[in-house]
Amino acid sequence: MMERSYSISDVAERIGVSQGTIRNWEKELVEFLAIARDENGCRIYTESIVARLEKVNQLRAQGLSLAMIREVFATFYQVAGANDAQESKMENEATQWEAISQQLALQLESMAQRQSQEIRDYIDQRLQSMSYVQNEILSQMQQARPLRMKRRSLFARVFSL
């Protein structure tokens, strides 16, 4: 999956600083802000770079100088390459989790379909049983009808005399 990219104006608006400020931060923190460029030489900011720039802005708002921020980043990121390897590892793990999630969703859907089919089969079986019982009752009622009719006619003959 391709990571979304942003222009410098998009990033400046999102973070709330000027484009010149972002360029200055890039120059001062170059080892931590490896910003790619497109074929026209325009800066392309990835989500991870934008997150770092947001962190720089937060630290500046707390009063840290760019030199201090460089030390903070050195502590947390060690080197830009090591962080990129970590990000790549995290992206791979995220991809693996996505694949696992999809497999689980498919398995759950399959289980739900099987259970649904089992329930339908059970209901069909119960309906057939009920239909059988209903037919038996109707049959017995039909067999009992001539007897009742005979009893009525006998009763009518006895009392009509």
From TrEMBL:
SMART domains: HTH_MERR (SM00422). Signal peptide: none annotated. Residues 5-75 form the HTH merR-type domain. One of its GO terms (molecular function) is DNA binding. Keywords: DNA-binding, Repressor, Transcription, Transcription regulation. Residues 3-27 form the HTH cro/C1-type domain. PANTHER family: MERR-FAMILY TRANSCRIPTIONAL REGULATOR, REDOX-CYCLING DRUG-SENSING TRANSCRIPTIONAL ACTIVATOR SOXR. This is Uncharacterized protein.
